Amino acid sequence: MKEWPQINWETVADRDPDVLVLGDLTRKQQTAENAAQKIRFLESNPVTRSMNAVRHKRYVLLSGQAMNPSIRTVEGIEKVAAALRTFGLDR
């Protein structure tokens, strides 16, 4: 199993997720890695903008540290769980 498997947006759109967890990997040199840039892409791309998560703006933003396997993963899990409750998807 790969730690960060690669799939295309068509595959994600076909699965029509209710929530998207986005890594906010803000760096001065790579603006495409920040969450705001990713959200702009999702909301403007014809393949992704019709996804349930995008239409309802259900995004969970996590730092890179919270997404990597470490003690900070707990922070990421807690943020995802809190977001699911906020979105009413915790049933």
UniProtKB/TrEMBL annotation:
For this protein, the record's SUPFAM superfamilies field holds: Helical backbone' metal receptor (SSF53807)
Q: Which Pfam families match?
A: Peripla_BP_2
Identify the InterPro entries for this entry: ABC_transptr_periplasmic_BD (IPR002491)
- Top-rank taxon: Bacteria
What are the residue boundaries of the Fe/B12 periplasmic-binding domain, all occurrences included? Answer: 1-91
Q: In its UniProt entry, what is this protein called?
A: ABC-type Fe3+-hydroxamate transport system substrate-binding protein
